[in-house]
Automatic annotation (TrEMBL), chain B:
This is Na+/H+ antiporter subunit D. Pfam families: Proton_antipo_M. It is found in: Cell membrane; Membrane. Belongs to the CPA3 antiporters (TC 2.A.63) subunit D family. It comes from Halomonas flagellata. NCBIfam families: PRK12663.1. It comes from the Bacteria. InterPro entries: CPA3_Na-H_Antiporter_D, NADH_UbQ_OxRdtase, ND/Mrp_TM. Its main location: membrane. The chain crosses the membrane at residues 6-23, 30-49, 69-95, 107-126, 132-150, 162-184, 204-226, 238-257, 277-296, 308-331, 368-395, 407-431, 451-470. Keywords: Cell membrane, Membrane, Transmembrane, Transmembrane helix. Residues 128-416 form the NADH:quinone oxidoreductase/Mrp antiporter transmembrane domain. It is a multi-pass membrane protein.
Length: 115, 511
């Protein structure tokens, strides 16, 4: 399972960076979305893929027996998803406003502030 | 209980919430802005008094013992940064009473400002690396919204670059945190440091160090990752520029200091060597960029980049004196840089332009403003007896003692070029004759009361600069104490985890 995840995450990162390097700002936002999803999947897989072993402590013990799924990365991913959702919705609105004001979907036409 | 460690985070959050409640009441929002940032300044000074007396202060959130819960840690560096946040927040809040138009206030300028300050203070005080990421995001979201306040064309173009590169940096940071967790199984920075010490020689550690360096390097605007900064910092309302210039990049610098003194300090020959080259090139590219500009705020933006190089230089040399210099430089720079942006705003208010070609004659018409510009400008360039002289002096002396002559030469050269840039602004804006009426836009109307509201914070920050310069002994002692803490990470680890091994029951934070 892990090698498959690793390949999938790699493809997602590659696709994200390819999209971000395009000139269109819409594709830029799609790249950002893919990028945050790739990062989330990566955190998810750092804990190792454990199937059917919830981190529950049996009565009378202080630590779970055997190998259990690590709940912490899932909590991290949850936080990261919420943050990424908020930031990306801002980015979508920003791109829309930028298009309304600049009337261009081309980063090459947004160079006034560059130096 | 030590409430003062959480208050610098809670007060801005509360002030933000209160000003959201009074969404329609302009007067109330303005009152809360001054009261909230004043409260932040007061509690941060209280925190500084406690920390410099009792040493590192720790608080465990929800009373969960250290490696399991989130710890708030106030060591001297973090506390100094929080005090500077308080000073800048208060100054900018006063200033924005005069510069923020009704339109900007109606779109939530003040709640966003409080949120930004809460994010910055949280980043300085947290002892948990994932929590650091969360505070970074809090700060970023607020800064995104502040950056596009007013929705002008230039702001949109700048914001797209700012948002993209900062999101990229956040993702790299997040990935590095995830991989670090996969390796050591903990998120508490003190615990990470303790466990990584037993993993020495693992190649993955260096990979992670580089990922953190790139992520924080983008935030700190280090070479070659700084291009978002000069593209965006000159576009928002001037109070926002001043706030960003003072605080945001320095959060990145702080994170670099924290991570590369506490966690990744085992192979300085590799990581700190890269930092050293990065620092030299940051200084040089920033100052050369500034030399080509003829717009007030663009020049100042490029100088942020070049000054970041000095701070990273202090970290990269990694000797006690260099760290002292770096911390001293951060203190000096935050105050001086914000002050210069405030002065640029006053000039803009009086003449309606930031273009050097369209300005002139201020020494004749407003001599007091010329003095007000000259104090931070000469301090930035490193003239004695102002604060910048001592900051540069310590860093450069540390460079010579560490026999890093190449970078030291760059640092001296950049000091000279900084002086050139500042003199350029002085000559164009203050010294040369006023351009003939036809070449400039008509002067805007100036309300004397507003002008005083804008000038007061600038005078206050100029006095801070003079205070640091003329009273350098105690400030140097403070920087020295914080450098001693940074170079002895065991003290930080023990304060957070307790000396009783991995499962120590927290430090002094437990009630």
């Amino acid at each position: 399972m892990e090698p498959l995840m690793a390949v999938a995450i790699g493809i997602l990162f590659a696709a994200a960076i390819y999209m971000m390097l395009r000139r269109s700002i819409v594709k830029l936002v799609i790249g950002l979305m893919l990028l945050s999803n790739a990062a989330n999947l990566l955190i998810f897989s750092t804990a190792g893929m454990v199937r059917g072993a919830p981190p529950l402590v049996a009565q009378g013990l202080t630590a779970p027996e055997g190998v259990v799924a690590d709940p912490l990365p899932q909590a991290l991913v949850l936080t990261a998803i919420v943050i990424a959702f908020g930031v990306l919705s801002f980015a979508v609105v920003l791109v829309r406003r930028a298009w309304e004001i600049v009337r261009a979907d081309d980063l090459d036409r947004m160079k006034d502030t560059d130096t | 209980m030590n409430p003062q460690i959480a208050l610098p985070i809670l007060i801005p959050l509360l002030a933000g919430a209160v000003s959201l409640v009074f969404w329609r009441s302009r007067g109330m929002q303005r009152f809360v802005a001054v009261a909230g940032t004043g409260g932040l300044l007061a509690t941060s000074l209280w925190l500084l008094a406690t920390v410099s007396r009792d040493g590192i202060l720790v608080m465990q959130m929800g009373d969960w013992p250290a490696p399991f819960g989130i710890s708030l840690v106030a060591d001297l560096l973090g506390t100094i940064m929080v005090v500077l946040t308080g000073i800048i927040g208060f100054a900018v809040a006063l200033y924005s009473l005069a510069t923020t138009g009704r339109g900007h206030e109606a779109y939530g300028y003040f709640p966003l400002m409080h949120l930004l300050l809460a994010g910055v203070a949280g980043a300085f005080l947290t002892g948990d690396i994932f929590n650091l990421y969360v505070w970074f995001e809090v700060m970023l979201v607020a800064s995104f919204a502040l950056l596009i306040l007013g929705s002008e064309k230039a702001q949109m173009e700048g914001a797209i670059k700012y948002v993209t590169l900062n999101l990229l940096s956040s993702v790299i940071f997040l990935v590095a945190v995830g991989l670090l967790y996969g390796m050591v199984g903990t998120l508490n920075m003190a615990d990470i440091a303790r466990r990584l010490a037993s993993l020495e020689g693992n190649g993955m550690v260096d990979v992670l160090a580089m990922m953190f360096m790139v992520a924080f390097g983008i935030k700190a605007a280090a070479f070659p990752l700084f291009f978002w900064l000069p593209a965006s910092y000159h576009t928002p309302p001037v109070a926002v520029s001043a706030l960003f210039a003072g605080l945001l990049t320095k959060v990145g610098v702080y994170a670099l200091y924290r991570v590369f003194t506490l966690i990744f300090h085992h192979s300085p020959g590799y990581t700190h060597e890269i930092l050293l080259w990065g620092a030299g090139l940051t200084m040089l590219s920033g100052v050369l960029g500034a030399a080509a500009q003829f717009e007030f705020r663009r020049i100042l933006s490029f100088h942020i980049v070049s000054q970041i190089g000095y701070m990273i230089l202090g970290l990269a040399l990694f000797t006690p004196l260099a760290i002292i210099g770096g911390v001293f430089y951060i203190m000096h720079h935050i105050i001086v840089k914000t002050n210069l942006f405030l002065v640029s705003g006053i000039v803009h208010r009086l003449r309606g332009s930031y273009e050097l070609k369209k300005l002139g004659g201020f020494y004749r018409t407003h001599p007091w403003l010329a003095v007000l510009f000259l104090i931070p400008a000469l301090s930035l360039a490193g003239m004695p007896p102002l604060s910048g002289f001592f900051a540069k002096f310590i860093v450069i002396r540390a460079g010579i003692e560490a026999e890093a002559y190449g970078v030291t030469f760059i640092a001296l050269l950049v000091g000279l070029l900084t002086l050139y840039s500042m003199i350029k602004i002085w000559a164009e804006v203050f010294w040369k004759a006023t351009p003939p009426e036809g070449d400039v836009d008509p002067y805007p109307e100036v309300n004397q009361r507003e002008l005083w509201l804008m000038t007061a914070p600038a005078i206050g920050l100029a006095l801070c600069t003079l205070f640091i310069g003329l009273n350098a002994g105690p400030i140097h002692a403070l920087a020295e104490a914080s450098a001693a803490e940074l170079l002895d990470p065991e003290r930080y680890i023990e304060a957070v985890l307790g000396s009783g091994g991995e499962r120590g029951m927290g430090g002094g934070g437990a009630p």
